[in-house]
Design brief:
This protein is α/β, with parallel strands linked by helices and 211 residues long. The chain folds into two domains: 31 residues; 166 residues, P-loop containing nucleotide triphosphate hydrolases (Rossmann fold). The protein has seven helices and six strands, in the order H-E-H-E-E-H-E-H-E-H-H-E-H. Strand 2 and strand 3 form a beta hairpin.
C-alpha cells in the first residue's frame, strides 16, 4: 500500500519534471523536429576514398581499411540522416553493385581526382553503367572528387566532361563537388547540395527509410 510519504515524493518528482520541461521550453524552445532519413548507395572503384570519407563524416578514429564487401553507416547531418550502404570497388565486386541498387533513394559516386588515365577511364565506364541502370533512374546524385590536395588533381569541369555528366544526368538532380577526405568540414560541405536535392525530391517528412 502506498504511504503518504511515497505519494508526496512522487508528486514532488512530477513537479520537478514539469518545472524542468517548462524551463527548457522557455529558455531553449521546443525540441527540434526529427530529421528525415534517406537511403543512399556509395560506390566508386577501389582507392577512390569512399571508406575514408564516410569514416570522417561519422567521426570514426580507427584505422581505415578498404571495404572488401559492403558496409552500412548512418551518417548524421544537420537537416537529415543518410543511411549509406558502401560497396567495395574491386574488379571482382563491381559486377555485384547492381544487386544493391533496388530501394535506394540516392547515389554517391566517389572519384580519386588525381588518379592515372587508365583508372579514370575505368571509373568513367563504371559510372556510366551505374547511372544507366533502371533501378537508379532519376535518383539524386553526388559525384565526390577526392584527393583534391594532390598536384595531379583534376578540376570539376574535367571530371564532368570525362564522365559526360551533363548528358547522362540531364533528367535527375545532381551535383559534383570537391572533397578533402581528411577534413570533416570539407566533406560535410560537399554533401550539402546532395542533401538539399534529397529533401526537395522526397520532402522533409521522409520516414527514415533504411536500406
Amino acid at each position: 500500500m502506498t504511504t503518504v510519504r511515497e505519494c508526496v515524493l512522487l508528486a514532488f518528482a512530477f513537479c520537478r519534471i514539469g518545472l524542468y520541461t517548462c524551463y527548457r521550453r522557455i529558455f531553449y524552445g521546443p525540441p527540434p523536429p526529427p530529421r528525415p532519413g534517406f537511403s543512399a548507395i556509395c560506390i566508386g572503384i577501389t582507392g577512390a576514398g569512399k571508406s575514408k570519407v564516410l569514416a570522417v563524416l561519422c567521426s570514426e578514429k580507427d584505422e581505415i581499411i578498404p571495404t572488401q564487401g559492403f558496409s552500412i553507416k548512418d551518417v548524421p547531418f544537420e537537416n537529415a540522416i543518410l543511411h549509406v550502404k558502401e560497396i567495395g570497388g574491386s574488379e571482382m565486386l563491381r559486377k555485384y553493385w547492381k544487386k544493391y541498387y533496388r530501394g535506394v533513394q540516392g547515389i554517391i559516386f566517389v572519384v580519386d581526382s588525381s588518379c592515372d588515365e587508365d583508372t579514370l577511364k575505368i571509373a568513367s565506364e563504371e559510372f556510366c553503367k551505374a547511372i544507366m541502370d533502371p533501378d537508379l533512374a532519376g535518383l539524386p546524385l553526388l559525384v565526390l572528387l577526392n584527393s583534391i590536395d594532390q598536384s595531379k588533381a583534376r578540376s570539376i569541369e574535367e571530371i564532368t566532361n570525362a564522365f559526360n555528366i551533363n548528358e547522362l544526368c540531364s533528367e535527375r538532380k545532381w551535383s559534383i563537388r570537391n572533397c578533402y577526405a581528411c577534413d570533416a568540414d570539407s566533406a560535410r560541405s560537399a554533401f550539402k547540395p546532395f542533401i538539399e536535392n534529397m529533401l526537395e525530391q522526397y520532402g522533409h517528412s521522409n520516414d527514415n527509410n533504411r536500406l
